[in-house]
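Box S1 | Example of a co-folding query
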Amino acid sequence: MTTSNEALRQWVTEVAELTRPANIHWCDGSQTEYQSLIKLMLETGDLLELDSSYKNCYLHRSDPSDVARVEHLTFVCTPDEAEAGPNNYWMAPADAHAKMHDLFAGCMAGRTLYVIPYCMGPIDSPYARCGVEITDSAYVAANMQLMTRMGAQALQRIERDDTFVRGLHSIGDLNPDRRFIMHFPKELMIQSFGSGYGGNALLGKKCHALRIASYQARQEGWLAEHMLIVEIESPQGEKHYLAAAFPSACGKTNLAMLIPPESQAGWKVRTLGDDIAWLHLDESGQLRAINPEAGYFGVVPGTNEQTNRNAYEMIQSDTIFTNVAVTANNEPWWEDKNVGEPAIDWKGQPYASENGPAAHPNSRFTVSAKQNRTYSPLADDPAGVPISAIIFGGRRRTLAPLVYQARDWNHGVLVGAGMASETTAAATGQVGVVRRDPMAMKPFCGYNFADYWGHWLSFAERSDNLPGIFHVNWFRRDADGRFLWPGFGENLRVLRWIIDRCEHRVDAVETPIGYLPHPADIDTRGLDMADGDMDLLLSVDTDSWREEANAIGAYLQGYGDRLPAALADEHKKLQDALG
Ligand code: GTP
Ligand code: SPV
Ligand code: MN
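Box S1 (continued) | Returned holo structure for sulfopyruvate
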């Protein structure tokens, strides 16, 4: 197979001349192809078969030094350093190209070069964008098949549109000193070397659909965001679509697949997306969202029948597990699975508790979205879904209340820009330290955050019908470290308040940080909560918030003159309100 697209044909030839593969395989996205990739990886040992109770499920053990995103090795290469901003690591394009050229030279000797055409978004959607990933990893090819609309149809669209993002990837020798993930937004190009892991290697996801797409989105007037998209239907049949941005491993997959608890009879929840949303204003000024992905690369630990039954059931078949443990009878095992015992840990060693968790805390499942029984057919709608509310959130053991609403769009942009969250195992580095993560995009914004906030603010000039903006925190704890809020399915109770606010059905308490619920307006019937927990969850401690506002101010000042005046104004208003 090859292509009628001259630019693509030439690029593949050039890459093959540089990397010297033994074979070239053009992926068509068929089941036969998927099966042969699996068979090959079983032979090479890249995949291990799991017990037959997990039909067509496989385990991949990555190199132990290659288990998460590597933010310090991820670069945005714009000609002007200021364009990448203090939020990104930057390298001059010429230097980055030279470095990568040396790394890629001859790196595919003896290997197969896979050409993977993919489409991010419904294949017929005007909002969708295509890319081609070239990789020497069969694991990447199989994952891209599950996660994106990959193969012949995508190639047809590329041939029709004559434009695509070029992603070049090699696992190299997995030496962390020779690992770089480079983005060239002006050239619509990604080059990734030395990692086989998730966000570093599946280039359609974070590299294309967030970093490159956010850069394009600013030029073209839309938004590429680290957001889930979920449909909530009331017992009366009223439907709302919510988009929520939480940092990595902070609850997007769980909220997107929420199962209404028994107390919320008649409510229905359907998943549109669990990680990325592309948002456009339509002719009427309505913000609409598509999910560019077609599958999930989700956090495994913590997934069980109680927390996320939908995910738990969907990963019983046709799933690739990465870095989980296995039981004595070769079933996959992870912390808080609540079934079985680990026998072999994620590194392939006999399990011993003194060696740490059996499954890596950032172990992941890859599965097609079609396996989610609550997947909404609207995820394939070319026009996307109308968004009623945007929800920001973080993992904060103190300070941030359960929920609050921004006064208006510009205030909401400040709420997003001021986000902070405890770090998780999704990226290498220390876990559990609070860091600023504006809009959950710190690792993913392909340009200067100051310009990004300016772009967000510009939406208020283009529509008078924008969604409400909210902030939630499911992770607040008491003095003993216990979560104050039950979370998971019970989060629907908070979403109901958010929807009521969007529909102007309920009033709220005005505080210096925004609108909070009257405690009676959050339905807590049947919850096992101690007296006073709700008051604590809905409290705004002025002294602590004054400190937080100062920290946000200091952070925003780091963006210097580029910081939009309207955002500085919003921050000033917050400080004045706190006194
Ligand atoms: P990425 O895929 O990394 O972008 O993450 P994500 O935001 O989709 O995170 P995910 O939903 O997979 O959640 C990660 C962790 O948060 C898991 O350990 C969950 O069990 C936990 N979690 C999710 N929702 C809640 C909640 O409502 N309450 C509490 N306490 N924990 C939660
Ligand atoms: C994240 O880290 O936010 C993820 C997982 O969704 S990865 O694709 O590896 O970046
Ligand atoms: Mn993510």
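Residues 69, 198-199, 205-206, 248, 275, 297, 426 surround sulfopyruvate (ligand 2) (CB under 6 Å). The two ends are 68 Å apart (CA to CA).
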